[in-house]
Write a structure and sequence with these properties.
Elements: E1 6-9, E2 14-17, E3 25-30, H1 41-59, E4 63-68, H2 75-84, H3 88-105, H4 121-133, E5 137-140, E6 143-146, E7 183-188, E8 203-205, H5 207-219, E9 223-229, H6 233-248, E10 253-259, E11 262-264, E12 267-268, H7 279-285, H8 288-296, E13 304-305, H9 308-323, H10 336-358, H11 363-382, H12 387-403, H13 415-434, H14 438-450, E14 453-458, E15 461-466
Parallel strand pairs: 3-4, 3-9, 9-10, 11-13
Antiparallel strand pairs: 1-2, 5-6, 6-7, 7-8, 11-12, 14-15
């Protein structure tokens, strides 16, 4: 059995030794985005956090089955589609495709399954029927509600007590409910909404039952890790526990793991608040590794404020890491002391990296060990190490950066930036020619030629073109 990892469990409010239900196998379910608009970088935060978890668990020898859903049937999707006067499922499909492309750009390993609500209706109806038959749910005018008062464990995740709860999260007060905290499992059809036939008439699922059905179908009655943003703890994940365990009589998820929220101006990034930065907008200006480093620089459970300073820190970190992969500048060989230091650092980095990651996926600590390795590589390079001398350390750097999902590639210079640099060099070359410093002027011409840029002098001036 793989041992040594501790994970913070929201259910118990403490770090616990990670023990799987089935030896060396991990069933991981992550709540994905509700696809009613373009994804923002807060959505990417959750995907990257659980991608890093999965990568490290697999490195430690676990066989991970990873499921991330798309919520394509939801009040927000329907409302947005009606505003645009388009089909709700068609709108959701558009944004699912966009998000899939973003995950590739961000080097997120594809989940083994990406179920969507619209394809899980039969399983959802079956679950609701079971809850009604067991008296955990009741029907009113085509709507079906879950009885929170019948579940003795309700509130176990959030710490809330039923008697203290008030309605108003995703549902307005409904006088038909037996208790204000009762939540919808099935909603009767309304004009302009997608709907399916059910024992209670045409309608659609409630939000919470959707994830329970998808997790049950794709991972079974018990899962090892259930993940998502900490804004989902209540009511969504609380309700998932209630309805799933009321059906199975078993513990739904062994570990509940939640990432912190990405914030702008003191508020969580949100489409409804209007303070979002889309993934597309971010990637137009920055490499995907920059976004990863922003999240890796902080504990996954902590809130992170999205600022220019945080982005610049990640940009600098990426340059430092990429700098560790630069080739040697000499074949002279480092001193024995420098080379011994590099070898020792290579031996230490694996232990340091694993010590950090074993402690609830402490990525800031893991990154620190990589930056220490880069420092040792640079010192050895400056001392005259050859490419062969640096190879083991650089391979180790790439291996562990890869475990964090980092490609270690910096964004290529834009074509307009290249043009501006060439124009500057041509201007300097003209000044050198005017000063009759022919050798230096020719070095600029020849150097640009080696890069595939040809300079042509004429009476009207100097022009250049790509060869």
């Amino acid at each position: 059995m793989v041992v040594g990892i501790k994970i913070y469990n929201t259910l118990t409010r403490k770090k616990e030794e990670f023990e799987t239900i089935e030896p060396n196998k991990v069933r991981l379910y992550v709540c994905g985005p509700t696809v009613y608009d373009r994804a923002h970088v807060g959505h990417a935060m959750s995907s990257i956090v659980f991608d890093v978890m999965r990568r490290y668990l697999e490195y430690k020898g676990y066989e991970v089955k990873h499921v991330m859903n798309y919520t394509d049937v939801d009040d927000k999707v329907i409302r947005r589609a009606n505003e645009l006067k388009v089909d709700a499922l068609g709108l959701a499909e558009k944004y699912i495709k966009e998000y899939d492309e973003h995950l590739v750009d961000l080097n997120v390993i594809p989940a083994h399954a990406n179920p969507r609500v619209s394809l899980e209706i039969d399983g959802i109806i079956e679950m609701v029927e079971t809850l009604v038959n067991k008296s955990y749910a009741y029907e009113v005018d085509g709507d079906v509600f879950f009885r929170v008062g019948k579940d003795d464990n309700y509130g176990i995740l959030s710490g809330r007590k039923v008697e203290d709860m008030q309605a108003g999260f995703r549902l307005e007060v409904d006088v038909r409910k037996e208790h204000p905290a009762d939540f919808a499992l099935w909603k009767s059809a309304k004009e302009g909404e997608p709907a399916w036939e059910s024992p209670w008439g045409r309608g659609r699922p409630g939000w919470h039952i959707e994830c329970s059905a998808m997790a049950l179908r794709h991972l079974g009655t018990q899962i090892d890790i259930h993940g998502g943003g900490n804004d989902l703890i209540f009511p969504h994940h609380e309700n998932e526990i209630a309805q799933t365990e009321s059906i199975t009589g078993e513990q739904f998820a062994r570990y509940w793991t939640h990432n912190g929220m990405l914030q702008i101006g003191g508020e969580a990034m949100s489409k409804s608040v209007g303070n979002m930065v889309t993934v597309e907008e971010f990637l137009q200006e920055h490499e995907g590794d920059v976004l990863r480093l922003m999240f890796l620089n902080a504990s996954y459970r902590a809130p992170l404020t999205f600022t220019d300073e945080v982005i610049e820190q990640a940009e600098r970190g990426l340059k430092r890491l990429c700098g560790g992969l630069r080739p040697a500048v000499s074949d002279g060989g480092p001193s024995e002391e420098d080379f011994a230091h590099l070898k020792a650092k290579v031996e230490d980095v694996r232990a340091d990296f694993e010590t950090s990651m074993n402690d609830d996926f402490n990525t800031p600590g893991a990154l620190s060990s990589l930056f220490e390795l880069v420092r040792s590589i640079n010192q050895a390079r400056d001392a005259g190490a050859s490419d062969t001398d640096l190879s083991l350390a650089q391979e180790t750097l790439q291996e562990f950066a890869g475990l964090l999902g980092l490609r270690l590639s910096e964004k290529e210079a834009k074509s307009e930036d290249v043009a501006a640099l060439v124009d500057l060099l041509i201007s300097i070359r003209k000044d050198l020619r005017d000063a009759e410093q022919w050798a230096l002027a020719d070095r600029i011409r020849d150097g640009l030629s080696d890069l595939g840029i040809l300079i042509e002098d004429s009476k009207s001036g100097t022009t250049w073109r790509n060869d």
